[in-house]
Write a structure and sequence with these properties.
Length: about 220
């Protein structure tokens, strides 16, 4: 992709509202995590920060994101992002991230996210996980808002690791990180998580979601 030729990207990943089958509309504050879940999450920290999540994933939300990107056999990260946020918003975020992190890091982030989604689907298939049909009403800004809520921890901070945990499972998230480290190096893995933290915080602001905090890794 040529970042100077209208590359379409922002930073979203797989997820759902606490992955309990609910969704969140743009502008609504993320629901607080149940006490039992909060206690479980506080028992461990993801590789790159933030609470871990060991509950059941919301595969319907994962399916909605995959469908937005063209389906499991032809998934395009950029296509999913434009489908959710619109071309103008996505291009503005690309320009902002490029100024902040540099073209190479943003390009590596895009490639890292594409690999993470595809590798996550591969690992899920190996584990016998099958995605359901995507909900017909979970798309556009509603899906984007759901993803924001999915990665928001109990203290209001948005962490990429929490979102990835909720996408398919914490175990699959760890497998994908190991695959990224083996193929691209640990620095590339951190770069993907770091820029996603910033980008999703930016998306939260664009959607006017209240109370979302920027992660320390950004």
């Amino acid at each position: 992709m040529n970042m100077r030729k209208n590359v379409l990207v922002a930073a979203l990943a797989l997820g759902g509202v606490a992955f309990a089958g609910a969704s969140i509309a743009a502008g609504e504050a993320p629901a607080a995590a149940p006490a039992a879940q909060m206690q479980m999450n506080q028992s461990a920290t993801n590789w790159f920060g933030g609470e871990t999540y060991n509950g059941a994933p919301a595969l319907n939300v994962t399916a909605a994101l995959v469908e937005a990107g063209g389906g499991a056999s032809d998934f395009s990260f950029a296509k999913a992002l434009v489908s959710m946020l619109g071309e103008k918003t996505v291009n503005a975020e690309v320009a902002k991230l490029t100024k902040q992190y540099g073209e190479k890091n943003v390009t590596d982030f895009i490639n890292g996210m594409t690999f993470a989604v595809n590798d996550g689907l591969k690992r899920a298939t190996e584990a016998g996980v099958k995605l359901p049909a995507a909900p017909a009403d979970l798309k556009g800004a509603k899906l984007a808002g759901t993803l924001v809520a999915a990665g928001t921890t109990s203290d209001g901070t948005w962490w990429s690791g929490l979102l990835f945990d909720k996408a398919l499972s914490h175990g699959i998230h760890v497998q994908v990180m190991q695959d990224i480290d083996a193929k691209y190096g640990h620095g590339a893995d951190e770069n993907t998580h770091k820029i996603l933290n910033q980008a999703m915080y930016d998306v939260a602001q664009a959607l006017k979601v209240k109370g979302v905090k920027l992660a320390s890794l950004h």
